[in-house]
Amino acid sequence: MTSAIHTTDIMEGAAKLRVLVVDDEEFLRSIVRERLEIAGYSVEEASNGNEALSMLESGGPYDVLLTDIRMPVMDGIALLGELGKRFPGTAGIVMSAYSELDTAVHALKMGACDYITKPFNFDVLLITIENALRKKELERQLDDYRTNLEEKVKEQTDIINSMYVRSIDAMIKALEAKDYYTRGHSQRVTLYSMAIAKELGITGQEMEDLHRASVLHDLGKIGVREAVLNKPGKLTEEEFAEIVRHPETAVRILEPIPFFRPLLPAILHHHERFDGKGYPARLVGKTIPVASRIMAIADTFDAMTSTRAYRKALPVADAINEIRRCSGTQFDPDIVPAFLACQSKIVIPGDVSLPEGFEEAIPAEYRPQPG
Length: 371
Hints:
Elements: H1 7-12, E1 18-22, H2 26-38, E2 42-46, H3 49-59, E3 64-68, H4 76-86, E4 91-96, H5 101-109, E5 114-117, H6 122-178, H7 185-200, H8 204-216, H9 226-229, H10 237-244, H11 246-254, H12 264-268, H13 290-304, H14 316-325, H15 336-341, H16 358-361
Parallel strand pairs: 1-2, 1-3, 3-4, 4-5
Helix pairs in contact: 3-4, 7-8, 7-13, 13-14
């Protein structure tokens, strides 16, 4: 970070400092220019605000803008307004024969570093310029500090978020250890959800949030007893109620962590139905978050095509037909076509466990066409 400017530093480095003097009185401009050049500054002149702006744009940067208030074409107040917006690194100083307090206050509000009245003592003018330069340097230092502070805060936030993600990932692995039959389920639901979303044209932050929500959608099952998760027979009402609470359990786990809060609505409502008969809130239609509507299809498809404690995996063709049949009741009828259209794209090789014969079981109309 640059050290603060001192008066001696300014005078020693004055040859490098540029001043633009703006006044409609040519004689005054020439006098000011002469005295500042003697002091070691590089000085240029403009007769009004418009001319000054042109010079700032084409010949900048200038360190100091010394401007009169009352000028034709564009006055000093308007010039200061443009200076603050377009050239914030230049120190503005107002000089005027009008010493009214309200004019000085207005000039300062428009971003002037200082105000000096005519006729002025040139020693006072030099001190005023030095003070304005010092003020600008302090502002630059403050901006640098803020930028560095923001970067450090971001670094620390990223570290904290990374720790949270690792902790949640450990919980997901613990859940999969409890429930052998859902091992890899969240990974597959994520892959399916991404394929559907891509088909729908979803991009950017919305896609990123959907990705994270898909990974975490079943986290709440960590609070379900292992005996319930792996029960081979029909669940009792009490056991089913335990399962139904898992979206709310996930929200309670994630809610204290700011990093995960944008994902909570999607996770909470991924078991809602388009017809309003889902849980936990019985939301209807488009009131269900779009990420939840996407995950509902991906989640159901994977559940049907995976072997569970209570049944074997269904053939993929049967699962596809079931999702098609439930379009408009369980599932959003505007999203089901995207799921059907991307079936070939979600057959992803590698460490993702897909049912045997998955690709062959896809109806011919949904397979990729040659060429």
